[in-house]
Automatic annotation (TrEMBL):
This is Silva-like protein. The lineage of its organism: Eukaryota, Metazoa, Chordata, Craniata, Vertebrata.
Amino acid sequence: THTYIVAGGFKPQVVVQAVIPDKACATPAGVIPTGST
C-alpha cells in the first residue's frame, strides 16, 4: 500500500509541477500584451 501511494502520488505531482510552470509562463506572456493593447 505504501509503495502504491508513493508511486501514484509522487508521479502525478511531478507532472503537475512541470505543467503548471509551463502554463503560468505562457499565460502572463499572452495576457500582458493583450492588456497593454
